[in-house]
Amino acid sequence: MNFEEIITDKAIKPKEKTEALSRWLANNPLELERLISYAEKAKDPVKASCIEAIEYVTKDNPQIVTVHCCDFLSAALTEDVPRIKWESARVIGNIAHLFPDRLEVAVKNLLQNSDHKGTVVRWSTAYALVQIIKTKQWQTSALIGAMEAIAQREEKASIRKIYLTGLKGIKK
Predict the structure, then answer these.
(1) Gene3D superfamilies this protein is in (predicted)?
(2) For residue 161, what are the domain limits?
(3) Is residue 28 packed enough to be buried (19+ CB in 10 Å), middle (13-18) or exposed (0-12)?
(4) Separation of alpha carbons 135 and 96, rounded Å
(5) Measuring CA to CA, which residue among 1, 35, 37, 36 is closest to residue 20?
């Protein structure tokens, strides 16, 4: 079964579709570009499921991601749909160490999402920013300062802890 068949199969429930897409992508990593091209034109729920499938696979195999995928995810952070924002942020967190020189747009968009009303968007944003700051290239006083300010104003202790734990050991 290819990814289009998985997506259009009405007998498969949404959560099962994401799991099936993840298994398909794990077995067909060279098809990532086709999946991204499809997701770019898809409706929001399908786009989110495609990005979530990429997120699952990149936990264990971040090397499948291409520059085009990184750029697609950086742009997807500006989408209106919270699920697209949080899934994109999680993938960016998974791949940040591979593309430190391609994250300028992602950082800008993540910083904007740090004030999002949705807890999951803010949690995923915190995860991504911490993974980005771990790359030496992004250990700048500007980003460290921005993350410290976000941590101070963050209302959820669990999200604040992500920032503070990630910033430990990073020198200005």
Answers:
(1) Leucine-rich Repeat Variant
(2) 3-167
(3) middle
(4) 8
(5) 1
Give the number of domains in the chain: 1
User: Residue 55 is which amino acid?
Assistant: E
Phi-psi region of 48 (alpha: psi -120 to 50; beta: other; left: phi over 0): alpha
pLDDT along the chain (172 residues), means of 10: 91 92 95 96 96 97 96 98 98 97 97 98 98 93 96 97 92 58
- Find the CATH number of the domain harbouring 17: 1.25.10.10
Amino acid identity, residue 70?
A: C
Buried b (16+ CB within 10 A) or exposed e, 36-54: bebbeeeeeebbbbbbbbb
Tell me the C-alpha distance between 132 and 169, whole Å.
Answer: 14
Among residues 150, 74, 82, 144, the alpha carbon closest in space to that of 119 is found at: 82
| Crossing angle for the helix pair 32-41 and 67-76, to the nearest 10 degrees | 30
Separation CA 86–CA 24 (nearest Å): 22
Q: How far is the C-alpha of 107 from the C-alpha of 133, rounded, in Å? A: 10
Task: Flag whether 172 is in a domain.
Answer: no
Residues contacting residue 48 through CB under 8 Å, at least 6 positions apart: 81, 83, 84, 87
